[in-house]
Amino acid sequence: MSNLLVQNIKHTNNTTAATVSSSGGVAVAGTLAVTGVHTVGNNAVYTSDGGAVTQNLVQGLAKSWINFVGTGTISISDSLNFSSINDEDTGQYGLTFTNNMGNADYSIDTHDRNYGGGWSDSNGTTGFDTRRRHENNSYSDASQVWASTHGDLA
After folding, report:
1. Looking at the domain assignment, is residue 41 inside a domain?
2. Cα–chain-centroid distance for residue 149?
3. Burial class (CB in 10 A: 0-12, 13-18, 19+), 74
4. How far is residue 10's CA from residue 112's CA, in Å, rounded to a whole number?
5. Residues facing 109 on adjacent strands
6. CB distance 107 to 151 below 8 Å
7. Domain residues for 142?
């Protein structure tokens, strides 16, 4: 096995492009272009716009989102981390995750084209139900429904 021992990586114009610390960390000056597939660990952080605080990158990402047709034959138009949707009754849909949530204490945001906000209930680690109701309090199918979740994946 070979080792490459460096402290600084410099451009041909003698400006430092990257510095390697004694603990093995690498600091990059300027823009770092990353290509290909890379894994970001759950301890990845980013610095706030003002530079005063850091935030956990993985915690801030939506863990799922969906756009589905809720009338006639229901169907998923597009989604992330949803494997299926069930038409449970008029205006009542069951959504199933592809990858489970770590617990049932995640945040759910739903909205639909016809009636505005709906609500979610029966959320569990494998998915949740969402309900759509007309102004007269009767359940009604919605032509298009959107939902997203934030929380911890299993």
Report:
1. no
2. 7
3. middle
4. 54
5. 148
6. yes
7. 64-150
Q: How far is CA 76 from CA 93, 127, 135, in A?
A: 12, 15, 25
Residue 57 lies inside a defined structural domain of this protein: no
pLDDT < 70 stretches in the chain: 116
Dihedrals phi, psi of 123, to nearest 5 degrees: -75, 140
Could you give phi then psi for residue 140, rounded to 5 degrees?
-140, 135
- 39 lies in some domain: no
> What residue type is 130 in one-letter code?
T
**Residue indicated by tokens 């084209």:** 113
Tokens 């959504």 locate to 95
Please count the structural domains in the chain.
Answer: 1
The closest of 93, 94, 91, 96 to 79, measured between CA atoms, is 96
Residue 78's SS3 state is strand
Residue 50 placed within a domain: no
* pTM over cut 0.90: no
* CA–CA distance, 58 with 31 (Å, rounded to integer): 21
User: What is the predicted pLDDT for the residue at 135?
Assistant: 79
Helix (H, G, I), strand (E, B) or coil at 79: strand
Q: What is the pLDDT of residue 134?
A: 82
pLDDT tens column, 116-137? 677 887 899 999 999 998 878 8
